[in-house]
Amino acid sequence: MEVSGTVKRISDTQQVSANFRKREIVVTTEEQYPQHLSIEFVQDKTDLLDTYREGEKVTIGINLRGREWTSPQGEVKYFNSIQGWRIEKAGGAAPSPAPSSAEGFASENSQGNDFSKPPGMAPYEEDDDDLPF
Predict the structure, then answer these.
(1) CATH number 1.50.10.10 is the correct assignment for the domain at 2-109
(2) DSSP string, 22-56
(3) Cα angle: 52, vertex 57, 105; to 5 degrees
(4) Cβ atoms of residues 46 and 96 within 8 Å
(5) What is the mean pLDDT of residues 97-105?
(6) From residue 39, how far is each of 26, 62, 82 by CA, in Å?
(7) Quick check: 108 and 92 in contact, CB under 8 A?
(8) Over the stretch 9-55, which tens digit does the pLDDT of each residue have?
(9) Which residues does residue 23 pair with via DSSP β-bridges, in sequence order?
(10) Are 59 and 7 in contact (CB under 8 A)?
């Protein structure tokens, strides 16, 4: 999937744990009712945002993520996130190192890689705690 729009905000990289870091970008879509979407880049993908600035038009390759969490009281909740794995200036002026075509994605994953993550992305490590995210 892809999202296109104008960069509204780029956050600093957050070191969440010793093995996990993330960075968020907010993109405003260009449609009748513009949406402000927060897209999260994780691990080595956080560096992809270094060359982008507020006001630039971009296209971002995304994956939708969903998690189930059970509270200590036994209540089940669901959380969704949008995770970016590729970003380029609108019109393809500055592609990131990740494959930009479905063919590149298919060929990389056909070599025994995990289909549950974008190409080149490190596996997601979850801590065994009771935090909802």
Answers:
(1) no
(2) EEEEEEE--SSS--EEEEEEEGGGGGGGGG--TT-
(3) 80
(4) no
(5) 44
(6) 6, 8, 5
(7) no
(8) 999 999 999 999 999 999 999 999 999 999 999 999 999 999 999 99
(9) 41
(10) no
- Per the DSSP assignment, residues forming a β-bridge with 21 are 15
Total residue length of the chain:
133
Of residues 130 and 22, more confidence is placed in 22
For the whole prediction, is pTM greater than 0.90?
no
Give me the phi and psi of 111, to 5 degrees please.
-95, 25
| CB-CB contact of 130 with 70 (8 Å) | no
Q: Which helix (H) or strand (E) holds 105?
A: helix 102-109
Give the C-alpha separation, 67 to 76, whole Å. 10
Alpha-carbon distance of 91 to 83, in angstroms, equals: 21
